[in-house]
Amino acid sequence: MTRPAADRARAARSGAARHGRVGDEPPTVPLAVSASDAIRDHPGPGAEPDAGPDHRPDPEPNHRPDPEPNRQPDPEPNHRPDPEPNHRPDPGAGAEAGATHGHGHGPAAPAGRRVRVLLAVLLVPCALAALVGLVVLRPTGGPSPAAGAALLQPVRGQVTAVEATDCSPGDGQGRCAALVVAMTDGPRAGRDLVQLVPIEPGTPRFTVGDPVVLGWSGGNPDDPGSYQVVDFQRGGSLAWLAALFAAAVLILGRWRGLAALAALAVSFGVLLLFVLPAILDGRSPLAVAVVGAGVIMFAVLYLTHGLSARTSTAVLGTLVSLALIGLLGAAFSAASRLTGLDDQTTALVASLGTGVDARGLVLAGMVIGALGVLDDVTVTQTSAVWELRRANPQLQARALFQAAMRIGRDHVASTVNTLVLAYAGASLPLLLLFSLSGRSLGDVATSQDVATEIVRTLVGSIGLVASVPVTTAVAALVACRERVQPEAGGRAGSPRRRARGRAASRGRAAPRAAPPAVPGTGPARRRPRTAR
Prior knowledge:
alpha+beta
């Protein structure tokens, strides 16, 4: 028997023995296909190359001859040899580049749990203190009788006619406008009354169809002198604007936007139901503002951003910054001898008939006014730290802090300018009045009204600047001990990515099959493998 025939017979006997058909007639397998199959199947690391040009390598003992001799080799064969008999490939292979098998991690490391416990130890007492203050400082009574007597009852109406007339009968100057107002509610709903309004630069202009608000003093409802025009009705336009704002937030933010609107409602509820009534009830304005700001901060941040270590870090940074603003505000308000008795506060004291801590109102305005800007900065900084950590899990606390501070410096530069312009815009009429007074810039800056705005602006800006390194440092320490989560939506573990990972692993573990040998073109040699 020639040597090639002996090789084919030996291969047939090994395949029949594997299937229990030792006595069956072995199938005829073309020589070229048997050689290509032998190359593709990658025998173990002990294989030796052929010794001569006519030598055909012996197939492995468990080799099964190909039943389809004319088929073309698969570019990515499904047969995957196991170079390590006890190795079991991970089904999530390929989720991370360069990994031949996945590494399943359990819960977060103990250090991460210790950080969460530390955050809870720092924040839970503050939250409990805010709740206790909410109970202790809650308003117990209504406004004083003097305040109730001084207020006018609003009556709504609509202007049906406007005519120029004399302010006094027979003066012939025509410096007043006679408004015919049809009352839509109040003690004489459905009736018309005439109101004289002076035509002056400081009075508004009225046209037919304007919805107005009348103030009724409580006197004779049939006497026009018991009423006066005090304002326009703006409920409809404001409702449309609020609806437009809510729609924009929901379209862009979706569920997160809905949570933000709910947090906004909580903020208004705390201000209207606790802060304002408690101050009118005689409580300390600064204490009420601190408690109200704490309740708003905890409710808004956790409701909007969820209960997580990231949100807790932002809350902690906001608390530290608010405490700094309160201390600096109290110190510099006393050092600058700010009384807080501007025109609006003086009118409030006259309406209440009781004493009010005017300087405390200034400090309360500083704390509440800075809270919204602080929330923005602290949340942005914590989000920047966590995203940097996710983009590069190898970053440690120092590198995270330095990278996030570069973002924070840009944010602070723009936010401080925004804060100054916001206060300047709110005080624009006052600034115009002082610019016309002919006084020097130093005299204007040190006056009571302007100095109050300067202290409020600079104290808030200092707290804003301090919040960036404080929040960034805490966030870097917490984030570097957190387990890096996969991308949002779980895409790292999706079936498609796992399939790609398995295909990549197959491509690394099994090289592509060589083309079948053509008779007469040379021997088909098998490259020896190096044991791993």
